[in-house]
Amino acid sequence: MHETTALPAERHVVAPDGCDVRVLLGRPGGTFAHFSLRPGGVTVPVRHRSVEELWYFLSGDGVLWRDDGADAAEVEVRAGVCTSIPLGTAFQLRSTGAEDLTAVAVTMPPWPGDGEAVRAAGPWAPNVEPGPGLGEA
Questions:
Q1: How many whole angstroms separate alpha carbon 123 and alpha carbon 104?
Q2: CATH number of the domain at 17-111, out of 1.20.200.10, 1.10.418.70, 2.60.120.10, 2.120.10.30?
Q3: Which of 8, 9, 83, 101 could be bridged to 60 by S-S, CB 3.0 to 4.6 A?
């Protein structure tokens, strides 16, 4: 089956970390979505129980913190930067620019639902509300 879609004008949901999500397309091996975080926004730090993600940033400026248990690091993100969130990695985003920090991401396998993302310890105090389905560690 062939599918085509356009970026929806309104978000579908708020992610467990607090980003706005516009779902694009999905296949049995993964899903593709658009994420945005307002200027000055700081997400809730989370980790995933069973999925990995690849993110490609489209606009804005920010910092992504990741901690896989052996190595914690911050990386600056902006249009053209691609990052990975390996299984079990804690992560948090901070939008530092004057426009929304936006990215498209592939989630592999597809997002299974509530409880997939669990709260983690992170470097910054979040200032956005988590979306539904955030589990406890």
A1: 24
A2: 2.60.120.10
A3: 101
